[in-house]
Design goal:
heterodimer; A: alpha/beta; B: 229 residues; 10 strands
């Protein structure tokens, strides 16, 4: 057993998008979420990790790739649509290189995008053969990346305390999906929104899941209070470990006031060529000709409070200087933090720094370069800690205190108000009722075969799609609200129609086929996983 | 989530959105603990049942929702509501304890009530650190065994561990007691200082660190202070 005296730093990226797939439309605005994330986050992260592999950097990172994201990244329709989207983007970038050739303020940035998109296309088509999950799996096999799962559709489990059978089904479907995509058992799980409530850990133990993450107050208010605060995981009486989020390292990146991404040298997210360009191809506009972001941005943040029209041109060299400084600062602070607490605790501290993956590259353009520098500097420029994954901490021989975390989340104010407020509370009666009916029907019809079985499986799909935490989240945030409402209405409507048809043994196969084709997530879903 | 706030609703609203039924399902009342301070209730109850109950009460009455302290069986708040359906946000008098709801109809003078539905029971999260309990450290051999079987997807292992729970068994003090008044005062103090629950948690973390640093500057933890399992 390796009793390494150094501390551990766990860099954790949570990659998630709701399942958005609309075969009934040639172009669908919300599908862009996936295309943007592939170009700006997922492929840059793969590029970064493959760089460590090539340079033999002992980098370690942990990622949750949620089941809806895995399903979309392996969906033939969406990957072929992405390929076409990327080609359109590359065409625009080529034209931009020509358009800006006499404008030295923007020409370098235009070439940067053209080269990035060309490399992205090469990787997507030639290196990964359109299979990003396979690329992530290979990095996991190489020991650079640890991938964990999530609840089936990112359901926020504290609101399903009244439906333990459904909470179990969300975990079971998530674990099965992971096994299908990664050909191994999930070592851990990202509970959607870090939403934990006592008892969930026992459901995880049943699936052989050894750890999850909680926000720091989940551990500070744990029972009994842990001696090591947020500098060590705790283990529930069920045997499942809870790794607490470190507030200090989170703040340095997340904070709107103090976070690195607000530096004046970094690229500005909100000023986009989609709005600035005098002309654009129709398929890079909204239906009806409206404008939208396309991901080519020529300006830097310039400073806090600077109006969009006053933003200054982006300068890549300055941005890379900022990356170098911020990565050095981050590693220095973690080393000091860990050294200090190692002396105080007399044991190796464990610092967990989780972030939304889409922060890196999509929102914060230079985020992947920052992470790359953090890992390289942490590997060679300090000795206070090593980069670890939660599994490596478990294997390190660390003894851990038994304690049960308090119910908590990482949402605004630390609990459930983002998913339960006057803008979205109308959804829960429908979803709870559907979950209860699903459990009853699944228990009564365990032996169903043929079309009955297909209908029961589709019933389960409609339920999990309706209960994604994304829809109430979007309603709280106030953008794309109509789309979120529409998704809840559609899935509950389809659920109710199927439910009645199953009860009456009058299933309309044409209608069932239509639902199966539209909502095709989890091809191997088994309705019996939803039984009581 | 990669999303943009501008001009994005056009396509979503262009298709017909199916209506949902007015009722979501059978009669029931549900209580959800939103956070240590607030709960959220919703209910649906058939109009016929409500009318029958009102008739039994002499023809005059109103819907009532009662918050029950499960630990002591006390009714600690009652709200006049529409018994047939509704949503309601309520304030828990104290955190870190169990509550439930009763839904029914109350006579006009408030002296008689017919309760028709009981909710689930919720455990409200704590807003303050718990009392110290027994300190138990364990080795993680069972977890390592499960991780070692990562590739056995045909028969995924379960994590079979049952550590003794060192949390102190406790029955929270009744609402109205000095302890609960103290907890309410702590809430009020936090609100007065403009602290969110997360800020309060950060204070707790700082205090924990301070205590740990103090203890380590006196003497390291002796091995016998840990209970090994």
């Amino acid at each position: 057993m390796n009793h390494d005296a150094r501390g551990h730093l766990i860099l954790f990226l949570h990659a998630h998008l709701p399942f958005v797939r609309h075969p009934e439309h040639a172009h669908f605005l919300e599908e862009d979420w996936l295309y943007e994330a592939i170009t700006e986050t997922y492929i840059p992260l793969l590029r970064m990790m493959e760089g460590w592999q090539k340079d033999q950097v002992p980098g370690r990172i942990t990622m949750s790739l949620t089941p809806p994201l895995c399903e979309m990244l392996r969906d033939e329709l969406l990957t072929s649509r992405y390929a076409a989207h990327l080609q359109r983007l590359l065409d625009v970038a080529e034209r931009e290189v020509q358009r800006t050739r006499l404008d030295e303020r923007f020409h370098h940035t235009a070439k940067l995008y053209r080269d990035l998109f060309a490399d992205t296309q090469h990787r997507f088509e030639k290196v990964y053969n359109r299979d990003l999950i396979g690329a992530f799996a290979r990095l996991q096999d190489a020991g650079i990346l640890e991938v964990v799962t999530c609840t089936a559709t990112h359901a926020f489990l504290p609101i399903f305390g009244i439906d333990p059978a459904y909470a179990r089904a969300q975990i079971k479907v998530g674990a099965k999906n992971y096994r299908r995509h990664f050909k191994r058992n999930p070592p851990g799980i990202w509970l959607a929104e870090c939403g934990y409530t006592p008892g969930v850990d026992r459901l995880l133990a049943d699936e052989g899941i050894t750890y999850f993450l909680v926000d720091s107050h989940g551990v500070n208010f744990a029972d009994p209070p842990p001696e090591n605060g947020t500098y060590s995981p705790i283990v529930c009486p069920s045997g499942v470990l809870a790794f607490p989020r470190d507030p200090e390292s989170s703040k340095q990146v997340w904070s709107a006031d103090e976070g690195y991404p607000g530096d004046a040298r970094y690229r500005e997210f909100y000023r986009d060529l989609g709005y600035d360009a005098p002309e654009l191809p129709e398929d890079l506009k909204l239906p009806g000709g409206g404008r939208k972001n396309i991901g080519i941005k020529y300006h830097r943040t310039t400073g806090r409070g600077v109006a969009l029209h006053d933003k200054q041109p982006y300068h890549r060299g300055w941005a890379m200087d900022a990356v170098d400084q911020h990565a050095g600062n981050f590693v220095f602070n973690r080393a000091k933090q860990i050294e200090h607490h190692r002396a105080a605790l007399l044991r190796p501290p464990v610092v967990v720094a989780p972030y939304d993956a889409e922060l890196f590259g999509h929102w914060w353009f230079e985020g992947p370069e920052f992470l790359d520098q953090v890992v390289r500097k942490a590997s060679y420029d300090q000795h206070a800690f090593r980069l670890s994954t939660p599994s490596e901490v478990i294997k390190s021989g660390l003894r851990v205190q038994v304690s049960t975390p308090a119910a908590s989340s990482w949402g605004a104010n630390g609990y459930g108000e983002v998913w339960l407020n006057d803008r979205n509370d109308w959804v829960w009666p429908y979803i709870h009722s559907a979950a209860e009916r699903m459990a009853k029907l699944a228990s009564e019809r365990r032996g169903a075969e043929g079309v009955q079985r297909r209908a029961l499986n589709q019933l389960a799909r409609e339920l999990v799609l309706a209960s994604a935490s994304d829809w109430p989240f979007i309603m709280s945030m106030g953008t794309h609200v109509e789309y979120a409402k529409r998704r809840i209405h559609e899935h509950i409507h389809r659920f109710n129609r199927l439910y009645d048809a199953i009860l009456k043994r009058a299933i309309d196969e044409k209608e069932l086929l239509e639902y199966e084709s539209k909502d095709n997530i989890f091809g191997d879903i088994d309705f019996r996983d939803f039984a009581v | 989530m990669p999303a943009q706030p501008r001009a994005l609703e056009a396509q979503a609203t262009s298709d017909l959105i199916p209506d949902l039924p007015a009722r979501s399902g059978p009669d029931r009342v549900v209580l959800l603990a939103r956070d240590p301070v607030f709960g959220h209730a919703y209910w649906e109850l058939g109009a016929e049942r409500v009318q029958r109950a009102v008739r039994e009460l002499g023809g005059a009455g109103h819907g009532v929702l009662r918050l029950v302290d499960i630990e002591h069986g006390d009714i600690i708040a009652a709200f006049e509501i529409n018994a047939e359906h509704g949503r309601f946000v309520l304030r828990f008098p104290a955190s870190d304890r169990r509550y439930g709801l009763e839904l029914g109809v109350e006579s006009a003078d408030g002296r008689r009530a017919i309760i028709m539905l009981h909710s689930n029971v919720v455990m409200v999260p704590p807003s303050l650190p718990r009392e110290k309990g027994e300190v138990v450290y364990v080795d993680l051999a069972p977890q390592r065994e499960v991780l070692a079987a990562a590739e056995n997807t045909a028969k995924p292992p379960r994590l079979r561990v049952d550590y003794p729970d060192p949390a102190k068994p406790r029955r929270p003090p009744p609402i109205g007691s000095i302890e609960v008044a103290r907890q309410a005062a702590a809430h009020a103090d936090r609100e007065r200082r403009g602290l969110s629950i997360l800020d309060a948690a950060a204070e707790v973390a700082a205090e924990t660190r301070r205590r740990v640093n103090e203890s380590s500057s006196r003497a390291p933890l002796a091995p016998h202070e840990e209970k090994r399992v």
